[in-house]
Write a structure and sequence with these properties.
The chain is of the alpha+beta class. It is built from 3 helices and 5 strands. The protein is elongated and about 60 Å long.
Length: 113
């Protein structure tokens, strides 16, 4: 990920952010030090908490659409129709993608009532 930043004395710079695991870190450090003008790099460890993910398929007027579910301790907190499914269905039926997206979301919510 590249982020434009202001460096010392107001000079423009680019912050390079790389997400990697410990196994690949040395190679990426070497790459940064040999292929950029930097004289050093900062290393920071981050942690990430994720929802449990699963999929269900719903039926819409535009066909079958997969829905991603994000759950925490069995409670569904987030739902998201698969974009590629929505895009394909929208192209097939000559409707906007957001129309298919809303139809898929509505279909899922109706099955949960």
């Amino acid at each position: 990920m590249l982020t434009p930043v202001l460096m010392k004395k107001g000079r423009p710079g680019t912050l390079i952010t790389i997400l990697t695991d410990d196994q690949h870190r040395p190679a990426l450090e070497r790459l940064l030090l040999t292929e950029t003008t930097t004289l050093g790099i900062r290393i920071r460890r981050d942690q990430r908490t994720c929802l449990d993910r699963s999929h269900v398929t719903v039926t819409t007027p535009y066909g079958e659409i997969r829905i991603k579910l994000g759950s925490l301790h069995g409670d569904v907190l987030n739902i998201a129709p698969e974009f590629e499914d929505c895009r394909t269905a929208a192209a097939t039926h000559s409707v906007p993608v957001k129309q298919v997206f809303h139809a898929a979301t509505s279909s899922y919510l109706q099955t949960k009532q």
